[in-house]
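Entry:
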Amino acid sequence: MYDVVVIGAGSTGCAVARELGRYKLSVCVIDKESDVCEGTTKANSAIVHAGFDAVPGTLKARLNVRGSRLMPQLSKELDFAFENNGALVLCFDKEQIPGLEELARRGAENGVEGVRVISGDEARALEPALTDEVAAALYAPTSGIVCPFEMTLALAENALANGVEFRLSTRVTGISRSGNGYTVSTDRGDIEAKIVVNAAGVYADRIHAMVSKTPMTIIPRRGEYMLLDKEAGGLVKHTVFQQPTKMGKGILVTPTVHGNLLLGPTAEDIDDKENTATTRSGLSEVKAKASLSVKGIPFGKQITGFTGLRAVGSTGDFIIGIPEDAPCFIDAAGIESPGLSSAPAIGEYVCELIGGIIALEPDPGFVAERKGIVHFAALSAEEQNELIKKDPAYGTVVCRCETVTEGEIRDAIDRPLGATTLDGVKRRTRAGMGRCQAGFCSPRTIALIAEKLGIGLLDVRKNGVYESEVSGDA
């Protein structure tokens, strides 16, 4: 019998788990995928929003601003990439300026510092590549960018270090009341828990329906992106948005924390919760709309395109709370944008709700810090030489595009919650994320995974669950 079971190992579920690790509780996180960060979290804009867009008084507004304020310190504690680069929201017609002024008013009411409307010329002084059609912009200096993979992995590893268990490759098949708690049935056996937290992303409505008759609808909103080579990464310094609509914040142009240029997303509501295909029409839309904001985008330097699904709730706000007919069951659903920004604050809020059900006793042994994988390319020449002396594997480069070494890949596999697939290695080390998109480094990475896992080369997967895990032998 666990005190808490968290369903879903994305940024929301892992943030909840990390917060629960502060207390003397038995906690388990379960996810149907073979790794954390496999759903919405793996394919989004990687933005830490300032909090000016959300309607004042909503959970989105409150948790966005709180999460944004927590992010700088959290990134230091957990050793993941974060950059406070600021954001611009553009309008292309003077008649649209009142809309920017409304966003500035919202931002001030939500407690966002420094947000203000500036002229088109002032915006171009900050970002010379903005088009001549930009009439004005909202400037939000507290906005930032993050690596969603690194952030979620850091939260998960820190939770694990503080006693939280993870059961991956475990699909929930049903939930039933059991005494004072719940029995969570899975394809790998039953799990008993006093409290269940539903952080299942686009599947949160299905998990909710297992215990409650209160209506909940989660619509997958497909968003397509283009990622450009690092040679294009310096085109803009700030995150450049367009004036938002009911479908989102429009097509953005932003640098990434690793030096690339990211464009997107589109916004299309679909029925299929697994449809992450990219389309010619979607990527054409990204190109056309991004060109309205920024001139001279070198689209020929695109190295990949990808699609993410946002979990859009029917209420227009995050759905976080306890259904009337399901005590001790907490939904953390409808976590669309600004969900990544809000994740640390959602973790706090869910813990508050849990504290209203059971006593939360602080654990004096809680460890707040976590050290990430050493990124060889980020070290000085002196530091690199010292590292190679200690472990020669760091002197062998496997991924040339991102200068990722054999030592880093072995670390990624050996760590608690270590990588078991090519995508798992990629998200932890960036091996395969560069210009050639794993064309050069895959064979050696596959060999290292096979060696570490004790499996054949042909058995190594790009992603997904291994057959032994499906049968329960792992």
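Residues 470-474 have pLDDT under 50 and may be disordered.
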